[in-house]
């Protein structure tokens, strides 16, 4: 009996190339989908992280502004060694936001250590006590928040400094004004002096006068700075020692002589 030999048809080169091409297309599409999915997931994670890095600290900063007794908008940090309380964008350190209290850095909860922030503090047009605050993180997955804050404790004072900046100084509510009687008994005029405890400490003392003065002298001060709005800062490089008794003399707008005595008890100044 003769068996028939089956003939098997071989795969041609063309057919093989077509199959390889189809496999390549499938792999390319799959790879693209994988890359796209991974990238989308990474962006989503970054955006969620950025939202946290903005939402949490802006709430803390809002409270510092809302309950400040004095507020001044700035675009440069206070002088080195200052005991001012302030928050400002530091563009020299990866756009970090820094916060100092009495000369000591204090981290605001929620701020990213990586920086990358955009920070803007602006006085709302037509108001004297409303701040428009903007905090953002830039990039593909950027996120920003803007809010308006009414400063509640200014006690009749206005927000000071610039109308727009990248930071602010803040302090406690001013003490009740202390009356300084004119030393010239023939003149019954008087000047009120306010001690700014929010910006006072062992290295400096800030006083706000009710009118323009001149010829300001305090022998124990290493420097005296005029900050505008009848505010003066008396600085001591090596700190004023506890119990310091300081005499400040000046002339009022009518050239009458005045003299006041300041006492330092711990971190607080008082007028005697």
Report on the structure:
The chain has about 270 residues and is an alpha+beta fold. The chain folds into two domains: about 45-170, no CATH class; about 180-270, Immunoglobulin-like, CATH 2.60.40. It is built from one helix and 19 strands. It has one helix spanning about 15-65; strands at about 70-75, 85-90, 95-100, 105, 115-125, 130-135, 145-150, 160, 165, 165-170, 180, 190-195, 205-210, 215, 225-230, 230-235, 245-250, 255-265, 270. Strands 4-3-2-10-1-8 form a six-stranded mixed β-sheet, covered by helices on one side. A hairpin with a 2-residue loop joins strand 3 (about 95-100) and strand 4 (about 105). The protein is rod-shaped. The mean pLDDT is about 80.
């Amino acid at each position: 009996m003769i068996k028939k030999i089956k003939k098997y048809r071989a795969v041609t080169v063309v057919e093989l190339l077509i199959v390889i091409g189809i496999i390549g297309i499938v792999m390319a599409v799959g790879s693209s989908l994988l890359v796209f999915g991974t990238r989308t997931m990474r962006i989503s994670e970054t955006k969620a992280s950025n939202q946290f890095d903005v939402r949490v600290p802006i709430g803390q900063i809002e409270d510092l502004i809302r309950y400040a007794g004095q507020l001044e908008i700035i675009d440069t940090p206070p002088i080195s060694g200052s005991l001012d309380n302030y928050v400002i964008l530091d563009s020299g350190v990866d756009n970090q936001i820094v916060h100092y209290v009495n000369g000591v850095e204090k981290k605001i909860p929620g701020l990213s250590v990586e920086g990358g922030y955009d920070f803007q503090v602006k006085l709302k047009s037509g108001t004297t006590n409303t701040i428009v605050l903007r905090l953002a993180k830039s990039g593909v997955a950027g996120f920003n928040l803007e809010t308006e804050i009414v400063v509640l404790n200014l006690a009749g004072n206005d927000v000071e400094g610039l109308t727009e900046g990248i930071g602010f100084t803040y302090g406690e509510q001013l003490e009740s004004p202390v009356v300084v009687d004119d030393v010239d008994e023939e003149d019954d005029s008087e000047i009120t002096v306010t001690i700014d405890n929010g910006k006072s400490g062992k290295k400096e003392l800030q006083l706000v006068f009710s009118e323009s003065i001149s010829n300001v002298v305090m022998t124990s001060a290493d420097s005296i700075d005029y900050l505008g709005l009848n505010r003066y800062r008396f600085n001591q490089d090596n700190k004023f020692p506890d119990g310091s008794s300081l005499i400040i003399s000046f002339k009022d707008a009518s050239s009458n002589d005045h003299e006041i005595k300041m006492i330092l008890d711990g971190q607080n100044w008082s007028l005697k």
